[in-house]
């Protein structure tokens, strides 16, 4: 089976009702990013940050995967699919995707404030545990923090994602403004002969200058069109 690698961003989940970050009215308009998504913000006011992610987790219980997520999962019948997502929600998994690499962490997990990337301390929360409180601790005694990669922090999963980008037979980008590195640089690892598709209702600047097949649509409609294109080509 051909290897299909799909890079997704906040636009993937927009039709499920989760705000994007940089569109007008997006999350970073409403919450100062330096307060809720940096290690400095967390050090200055951990409760504010913990509450912010409690809210995001609570929202997770009220949203569902959209048709776009479902179509990506269905493509597993035809391709060896790897999803590389910048999203911290679990909508790809809930739609049935089996291989999802989360570059920026996962809302459903918490970890140690002292060693956030030590697998020993990463814990999956059950829905009834979604509200983390000040004083809840990891097994090393530190405050439990969200398992989220904040601005200025290392992105440990990028190496794995690069390996998949280098091996891709087809590369797809959905719903990301490609503003945040290293995720935005993944396209540079995709071999030159590999077809690249981009689904987004707005124009997204591709700095490398390589040819990209643009589908100027939302994630669900765009995925429907892409599925037809890919299946015709592989038939
Ligand atoms: N379908 C597809 N794409 C959409 C849709 C939709 N229905 N609605 C909006 N979009 C597009 C926007 O046009 C934009 O290009 O989704 C993109 C969202 O861009 P951003 O808000 O910048 O989100 P993203 O690129 O995922 O941000 C990257 O930055 O804030 C940090 O860590 C956070 O993972 C995030 C990273």
Automatic annotation (TrEMBL):
Deacetylase sirtuin-type domain: residues covered: 1-233
InterPro entries assigned to the protein according to its UniProt record, in alphabetical order: DHS-like_NAD/FAD-binding_dom, NAD-dep_sirtuin_deacylases, Sirtuin, Sirtuin_cat_small_dom_sf, Sirtuin_class_III, Ssirtuin_cat_dom
Catalyzed reaction equations: N(6)-acetyl-L-lysyl-[protein] + NAD(+) + H2O = 2''-O-acetyl-ADP-D-ribose + nicotinamide + L-lysyl-[protein]; N(6)-succinyl-L-lysyl-[protein] + NAD(+) + H2O = 2''-O-succinyl-ADP-D-ribose + nicotinamide + L-lysyl-[protein]
Positions annotated to bind substrate: 53, 56
The protein's Enzyme Commission number: 2.3.1.286
Keyword vocabulary terms for this entry: Cytoplasm, NAD, Transferase
Cell compartment(s), UniProt: Cytoplasm
MF-aspect GO terms: histone deacetylase activity, NAD-dependent; NAD+ binding; protein-malonyllysine demalonylase activity; protein-succinyllysine desuccinylase activity
Active site: 104 (proton acceptor)
Binding site for NAD(+): 9-28, 86-89, 175-177, 219
A GO cellular component annotation in the UniProt record: cytoplasm
Primary localisation category: cytoplasm
HAMAP family in the record: Sirtuin_ClassIII
Note on domains (UniProt): 2 residues (Tyr-53 and Arg-56) present in a large hydrophobic pocket are probably involved in substrate specificity. They are important for desuccinylation activity, but dispensable for deacetylation activity.
Function statement: NAD-dependent lysine deacetylase and desuccinylase that specifically removes acetyl and succinyl groups on target proteins. Modulates the activities of several proteins which are inactive in their acylated form.
Family named by the database record: Belongs to the sirtuin family. Class III subfamily.
Name of the featured protein: NAD-dependent protein deacylase
Species: Phocaeicola coprocola
